[in-house]
Amino acid sequence: MIRSQHKGSRGEARALNAYVKLMRAAESVSASIHGHLSRAGLTISQFGVLEAIYHLGPLSQAEIARKILKSTGNITMVIDNLEKRGLVKRERDAEDRRYYSVRLTPSGKKLIADIFPRHAGRIAQGMNILTKAEQETLGNLCRKLGRGIASAGQGGKDE
């Protein structure tokens, strides 16, 4: 077992060890599952935008940013690149001209419709390393950790 070399308290060492394992597992899973996206010419963020719109319908840039956990500044660039490729289109709201919705173009819809089933299959295949009960437990623990850190105000801003 790899352990942190940190010389702090047992609680800190335990937390660091759990964190390192979580990050290594996340990186391994992500690399395994997302490899096919680059062959489609997509980044993980671009795929996330296409997938969100595919399943939820047209969304504002702010809604997309919240859904895929990215900053609105980053999402602007991602959507710019998807728009240049003809995969999404920004449309100004007729009633509130400040509001833009982002929607899939026919070619964007075709691309995500082709890629998503394989992507979901890769996720299922990778997660099948765990039993059904372990997958449920992992999901519950991740939700608890994410919500707990968010409600404690540790959502990623430097203090």
Biggest sheet details: 2 strands, antiparallel
Helix content: 55-70%
Oligomer: single chain
| CATH fold-level label | Arc Repressor Mutant, subunit A
Per CATH, the class reads Mainly Alpha
Description:
- The protein has 159 residues and is mainly alpha-helical.
- The chain has six helices and two strands; from the N terminus they run ααααββαα.
- The protein has helices at 10-39, 44-56, 61-68, 72-84, 106-127, 132-151; strands at residues 88-92, 100-104.
- It starts with 9 loop residues before the first helix and ends in an 8-residue tail after the last helix.
Outline of this structure?
With 159 residues, the chain is mainly alpha-helical.
Write the layout of secondary structure elements.
Blueprint: H1 10-39, H2 44-56, H3 61-68, H4 72-84, E1 88-92, E2 100-104, H5 106-127, H6 132-151
Antiparallel strand pairs: 1-2
Helix pairs in contact: 1-5, 2-3, 2-5, 3-4
List keywords for this structure.
two-stranded antiparallel ribbon; 159 residues; Arc Repressor Mutant, subunit A; mainly alpha; 2 strands; globular
